[in-house]
Amino acid sequence: MAQQYAKDQPAGFTNRIEKVAIIGGLMVKLRPNKAGGSIGRHLTDQLLKNGKHTITAITRPESTNRIPDGVKLARVDYSSDDDSALVEVLKGQQVLLITMNVMAPRDTVVKIIRAAAKAGVRYIEPNWYGHDAANDALCRDSMLTENRDRAIEEIKKLGVSAYLLLVCNFWYEFSLGGGTDRFGFNFAKRTFTIFDNGDVAINTTTWPQCGRAIASLLSLKELPEDESDTSPTLSQFTNRGTYVSSFRLTQRDMFKSVKRVTGTADSEWKITRELSLVRFKEGQEALKVHDWKAFPKMLYSRMFFPNGDGDYESRLGLDNAVLDLPVEELDEATKEGIRMGLAGEVPFSH
Known about the structure:
Blueprint: E1 19-23, H1 39-50, E2 54-59, E3 71-75, H2 84-90, E4 95-98, H3 108-119, E5 123-126, E6 129-130, H4 136-141, H5 145-158, E7 162-167, H6 172-176, E8 185-186, E9 191-195, E10 202-204, H7 207-217, E11 240-243, E12 247-249, H8 251-262, E13 270-274, H9 276-288, H10 295-303, H11 312-316, H12 330-342
């Protein structure tokens, strides 16, 4: 597609994103000084903080979630085959952020994308906050290819919207506090499972950093002003991944941070070692008999393969600087992950 410029747009074009809709997930107001919640909460929180957008939260009619001050609320049954109400709500929105639960019905995201196209929404984030979408082998092995392709192909087919994908890998605090099958830790029992030698570096991102990335992205100019404008624009990030990260670290790096935060030594932990490939295959076998509790085991084991698939920073670089994202403090994020784990705020996996 040929590069577009703001100078060539019709009268009334503002060259900035003003209206953003978020659908799915929980937009309940965050507790003071706590980072827990969900990706939808953090997107909402950071968009509110930058103060540049009118935000509309689209929830189901029966939802009882509290919505933060400053966010408009629209109650719509977006799973219905009749999308007229959803289309009406989406009219005038420039960006739609979809934050559905991973267990949502498979066709829900496609229904929402179709409604967004009917409403003329220019940009859609189709529920992709994680894996490198350009890494076909990683997505295939992680059972994510079908979801990726279904959403992107529908957007392309409709020809109305551009898509945005946030590549952030696993959420750090969530994964650290989520049990042995995620980053290997069980804080209640003080156990640590090392995958292989624990020395494979992967990228991982905190929830607040994901929120800041999306808020910063949507704060960019939409298009270059003219041919001489080389400043960052939203158009540069469309129809591809936006690569962000909080930390590039190994399991052993995580363990060092955990010990600093907890004031513990190796001798106070039960440490075991398992092979990532064996764990991955065990997860695959369990999923064949529809044991979906094994999904995290399969998913995380694959990311820690020693082939470097989990480290997109070294191969592709990051967009952190362009988006002016801060350098975060590892031990502070670790502290929050431990708190979330001990408080039972993460769906626990072993």
